[in-house]
Each structure stands twice: as structure tokens, then as C-alpha cells.
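task queued by scheduler; priority normal; single chain, no ligands, no partner chains; default sampling; output format set to C-alpha cells
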Amino acid sequence: MPVLFIHGVAVRDEHDPEWASVRRVTQGLRWPAMLAALRETVAPVLRPADPDGVDIAPVYWGDLGAHHAPPTPPPAPADRDLPHGDALGETLEARLLSRTPAGAWPDVIRAAWSVARDANLIEVARGLPPAQAWPFLEAAALARTPAMPPIRRPHLPAPLVVQRQRNLSRALLTVRRPITSFVPIFLGDLLVYLDRRGTPGAPGPIVQRVLDALARAHASRLDSGEPLVVLTHSLGGVLLYDVLGAFLPAAPELRDVRVDFWCAAGSQVGPFVELGLMAGGPASPTAGPHLGYFWNVWSESDLLSFPAADMVPGVHDTAFPLGSNVQAGHLAYLQRPAFYRTLAAKVEVHTGRRG
């Protein structure tokens, strides 16, 4: 029978609009490499005589997740154009704060808005040549700012100071921009799932996709009697928990579907159960007929993974050693040969298969 893989949030196919934003931060799931690893390690356990005949398939639902359309910011006013109303005060404040120590910001803010609301000064500024208007307003605001103590700076040649500031700004923008576009997708997928999860009698589209995949997998293994193995990652574990605990029991036509071995890697099943966010409430799928062995793999260096043994009866936790790279930890399970070899050994001993 097949091995199914259910991914988590912020996973997109290369044809989806959010692919570029997700790819820059997560580098994708590298499905071909995952397929090769599962084929090499788990497939021989399930079908020793014909490992290539084991159906290994992803359950993709990223296209049903959040669609992030970042707003187009209005063009910044040119220096020669003085905005009107509060926009002038906001712009003057921002120009001054960008080169003022934070300790002096309160006084600078008050001075900037004092100038922005001085009709006589604004009238004079609008009559000046474009290149002089903003410097005039900035000078007027600084004149209304209490004297600031001099800032002691290390003596560096001016060109070196400018270049260092530019390099720092460029580095920060390189990090911030992809994260800024990634976070709405990451949180959006979670919120979309919770909002559109549906009910056991009327499953939502993401849940329905998982149900359909399980039904196909179950049908394909009836003749061989091979076990059904499911690997989930991150929020994919929450999806399968909901399906096994709430949605399958409400579907009489799927009453015989059973996941013999489930590995949840980097999941949030534990805290979701503890917070009462699962579709089935306190009922655990480990007590029902649709789930056999439940292995929950988490890591100290993966801040998005959690143990589940204290919240879910029958689950078996393993803290997997991923190293100290916190940034890469959440996807690292799926990139480690040792993880797949361990998964194959667990499948072997808990499904009675021998490779």
C-alpha cells in the first residue's frame, strides 16, 4: 500500500502565486528527494519483493490555503511635493527620526508636529524652491527641539561610515523582505484551515482532500494486505488527527479505513489538543478503530514542534536530535537520511513487516 505524506502550512506548488515568497524562506519541501528517501528506506519494508511497486504519494493542499495579495503601497511623495494635512506631519517626523537617537525621539516628534501645524511656516515652505522646502521645515523643527547632548561616535572616514550604513541596510532588507511576505502565508494557512475545516457531517475542502486520499490508499491496499503508512509534517499532523478522530467516524462509507502507522514530524498536535482546538474535541483517534501506532517526532531545536504524550493517550514521543540550527530545524527531519532510516525501522517493528 501507499505511503501518504501530508504537508503543513506555507507549502506551495511552483505554479501557485505564493511559490516565490515561500521558496525564498523554506526552500520548499524538496519532494523528489523525499520520494527517493522513502523509496529507499520504507518501501522495502512494506513490499520486500517489489519496493518500486509501493505507491508513495503526497497529499497536496497548499492551493486551498491562504492567498496573500500584498497591498500596493502609494508612491512616496517626491521631495519637491509637500503633502497636506497629517501626511505632512508624518513625513516630517519620519525624516527627522531616521537620523535622531531614540532617546531624543519624544522631543523631535513634538517639534515636528508643532511645525506641521504652523500654517505660517507651511505657507513659507510651499513658496520655496523644491530643493529648499524640506530642509527649511526640518531646520524649523530642530530649532524647536531642546538641545541634545553630543553623540560620541568612533572616528571613521566619512566614506567608510556611509558604506557601512548602506551594507547594513541592504543586509537587513534582504532578511526582512522575504519574511514579511512569508508570514501572512504561514499564519494565513492555519487560519484558513481552522475557519474552513467544516464539521464531521460537512467537511471543508482541505479535510475532504485528505479523506479522498485515505480512501484511495485504502482501496489500493485491499488485495495486498499491506499496512497503510502516513507521514505528516507540522500542521499536517493536526489535519490527520482531525480526520481520524472526527471526520472518518462520521463517514459510514469509510468505516474500514485504517492508518496502521502514523508518523507526525514537527507537529503541533500536543498543544492543539491541550487548547481544545481539535475538531473531535477531547476524543482521541488512538482510542478508535482508524489508527494503529502513533509516533510523534519533535526536537528541542524545532520551536514549532511539541511532544504530545501528556495530552494524547497512546502516542509515542521521540525527541529527534536535529542539532542547534533553530532556523532550519522545522524542515530538517525531512532532509535527514537518519530520520528516514529510523522511520523504516519503526514501521518494520510496529506493523510486523520484515524487509
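post-processing summary
- The radius of gyration is 29 Å.
- The chain has a mean pLDDT of 85.
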